[in-house]
């Protein structure tokens, strides 16, 4: 190949390389322009107002309802049930008769004790008379001995007789005391055949929750007859973990709902907090008192109890979906209304109530992005579609 041919080939290669370089430069400029356009393009987002107002920290626990007071009525003596004067769900008064046992055996025991008292009285009277005689004999012999008319042996014999009769008198007194005690015991046991309900404190009325026996049954002492409960106020019981234990305090307000009355909220407050945790569950027992004047809440019901731990009257509140994370920091995008850009604000999250969240930080006012914050950064342009829509034309207006 001659020199002219080589020059031609080199010339063609140079021209071809220039074309390729120019093409690559044009592509690079187009990509750069596209990226620039995208960076300046407004991102559509949804926003809502940052609000100020009260917010409450609360927790909802599953619990049960128990009676304020709950005890079993039982006889103190054995016998056959002669009569039951109350039934299941009846209201009973303090001191009311609720059952009666057959008392013939106990009436007979009282009669026997009275007869024993009569015998003891007769023995005591005899002892008193004998002691008076013995005392007179001793005084007479003692006077004769002082005058030298009788002997020392006679005085000693009289003294011994007096001591013997004195001892019999003391025995007769003790027998009289014992007979009186036996009569009192017989009367008490007779009184036990009439079974009454009694309690201290609380309301004068309570409810028969259960009946365990029927009339005619033979029962022994301490056999349960009735279960009596107090229903107003009623007690709610929940168990809390260590996380919430430090937050709960006596007198805190609670709200309670049940499956029986799902649309109704019952209000109460904390009255007792256990000082220990159960080893098996690592939970502590908390008792609540709830007014129950109509007796609608019953022992054994399940309940959902909401406890109010804390309430802030003037908090900065945003929706939970407004929170986002950038570089391990939690924050929100606040709308700059003058130029429709957004500013990233780092926040500290406080109380959460449902979908409402308390936030703390600087420059928290105006509106905040709730949807679309994953597409923006600090200083990004935004557009709010709802504000760009034309208001609908009312019926009857000219549509031209």
Summarize the structure.
The protein has 400 residues and is an alpha+beta fold.
Describe this structure in words.
This protein is an alpha+beta fold. The protein has 4 domains: 43-53 and 314-388, conserved putative lor/sdh protein from methanococcus maripaludis s2 fold (Beta Barrel); 62-68 and 231-312, Efflux pump adaptor protein, beta barrel domain (Elongation Factor Tu (Ef-tu), domain 3); 75-102 and 193-224, OB fold (Dihydrolipoamide Acetyltransferase, E2P) (Beta Barrel); 103-191. Helices cover 32% and strands 36% of the residues. It has 5 helices and 21 strands. The chain has helices at residues 3-40, 104-146, 152-191, 242-245, 385-388; strands at 43-44, 46-49, 51-73, 79-84, 91-93, 97-101, 194-196, 205-211, 218-219, 226-240, 253-257, 266-273, 284-290, 302-319, 324-326, 329-336, 341-346, 348-353, 356-360, 367-371, 382-383. The strands form 5 sheets. The protein has a 6-stranded antiparallel beta barrel. A hairpin with an 8-residue loop joins strand 11 and strand 12. Helix 2 (104-146) packs antiparallel against helix 3 (152-191). It starts with a helix and ends in a 12-residue tail after the last helix. Residues 31-39 and 390-400 have low confidence and may be disordered.
Tally of strands: 21
What is the average of the pLDDT values?
A: 87
Radius of gyration: 49 Å
Q: What does the overall shape look like?
A: rod-shaped
The CATH topology name of the largest domain reads Elongation Factor Tu (Ef-tu), domain 3
Distance from N terminus to C terminus (CA atoms, Å) equals 81 Å
């Amino acid at each position: 190949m001659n020199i002219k041919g080589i020059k031609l080939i080199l010339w063609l290669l140079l021209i071809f390389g220039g074309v390729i370089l120019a093409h690559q430069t044009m592509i690079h400029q187009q990509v750069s322009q596209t990226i620039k356009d995208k960076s300046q393009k407004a991102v559509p987002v949804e926003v809502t107002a940052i609000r100020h107002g009260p917010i409450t920290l609360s927790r909802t626990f599953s619990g049960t309802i128990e009676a304020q007071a709950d005890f079993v009525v039982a006889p103190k003596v054995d016998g056959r049930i002669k009569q039951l004067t109350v039934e299941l769900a009846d209201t009973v008064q303090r001191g009311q008769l609720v059952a009666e046992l057959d008392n013939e055996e106990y009436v007979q025991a009282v009669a026997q004790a009275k007869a024993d008292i009569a015998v003891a009285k007769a023995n005591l009277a005899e002892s008193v008379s004998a002691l008076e005689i013995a005392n007179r004999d001793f005084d007479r012999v003692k006077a004769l001995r002082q005058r030298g008319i009788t002997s020392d042996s006679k005085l000693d014999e009289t003294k011994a007789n007096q001591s013997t009769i004195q001892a019999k008198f003391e025995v007769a007194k003790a027998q009289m005391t014992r007979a009186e005690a036996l009569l009192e015991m017989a009367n008490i046991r007779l009184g036990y055949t009439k079974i009454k309900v009694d309690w201290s404190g609380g309301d004068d009325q309570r409810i028969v929750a259960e009946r365990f026996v029927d009339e005619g049954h033979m029962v022994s002492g301490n056999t349960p007859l009735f279960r009596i409960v107090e229903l107003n106020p009623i007690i709610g019981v929940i168990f809390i973990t260590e996380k919430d234990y430090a937050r709960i305090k006596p007198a805190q307000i609670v709200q309670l709902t049940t499956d029986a009355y799902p649309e109704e909220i019952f209000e109460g407050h904390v009255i007792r907090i256990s000082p220990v945790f159960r080893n098996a569950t690592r939970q502590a027992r908390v008792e609540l008192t709830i007014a129950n004047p109509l007796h609608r809440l019953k022992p054994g019901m399940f309940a959902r109890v909401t406890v109010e731990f804390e309430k802030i009257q003037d908090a900065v509140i945003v929706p939970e979906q407004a929170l986002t994370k950038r570089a391990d920091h939690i924050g929100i995008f606040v709308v700059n209304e003058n130029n429709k850009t957004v500013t990233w604000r780092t926040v500290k999250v406080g109380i959460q109530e449902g979908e409402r969240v308390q936030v703390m930080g600087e420059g928290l006012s105006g509106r905040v992005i709730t949807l679309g914050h994953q597409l923006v950064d600090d200083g990004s342009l935004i557009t709010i579609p709802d504000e760009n829509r034309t208001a609908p034309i009312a019926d009857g207006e000219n549509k031209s």
